[in-house]
Amino acid sequence: MVTGDAEKYSDFYRDSKDLIFKEGTMLAFPLMFFYAIAYCVVNVGFLIFNFCLYFWIESISSDDDYPAHLVLCHFVNAVALVWIICHVYGFFKVSVSGAYGTWYWSMNKKEVPKFTTLRFIYIAFRYHIGPTAFGSLIIMVCTILQILLAYVETSGVDGTLGTDLCSCGLDCCDTALYILKAVIEAVTGMAYVHIGNHGTGFIDAARVSFTLFKRNYAKIAVITQVDIYLSILIF
Fold this sequence. Notes:
Elements: H1 2-21, H2 24-28, H3 30-60, H4 68-104, H5 116-127, H6 129-155, H7 164-198, H8 202-215, H9 217-234
């Protein structure tokens, strides 16, 4: 029995080693590293541009005269920043999912096309800008609602929001919105993967992803937490 287990683990180790070292070029996707760096640079660039735009809008006004339309400008600026960051993340996930899906579902790894990462960046840019924009719009709306709700909780209006009833209602709304956003983010993330691998629209991908989420919500929750911890350890 012990010998059989040893042989089984030995075969598993040998197959894993062959997969990593012999087919490492297909598994690693060297361009993916630079693509991830470019993704981070784009996000940082949008943040810097947003802050510069914020200070430029502030420089227009003065202490004595603060036009009301500048508040609207700040709001539009914040909404655009959240939407762009969510959109860039969706674009990144669709293209990466397509590249790794091509490698994973290819029986013969040598048949995987060269420059797979660049190929799926082009595919995502040409065909999937709309689905990623729509998915990021949904996440952006939930994020803005959370920010507005947090602002209402901290500011209060004429002292009426300090009562126990209003505080309880705001806490319930905050919890419900947090759960709703978590579910939407999970379903949208799986929809991005489905879009990258199958090329469908966002509605069809979200429908399939939500069905998958209902059947495997416990596994998805565990995998999500493991993914978060691994990301923290890596970065």
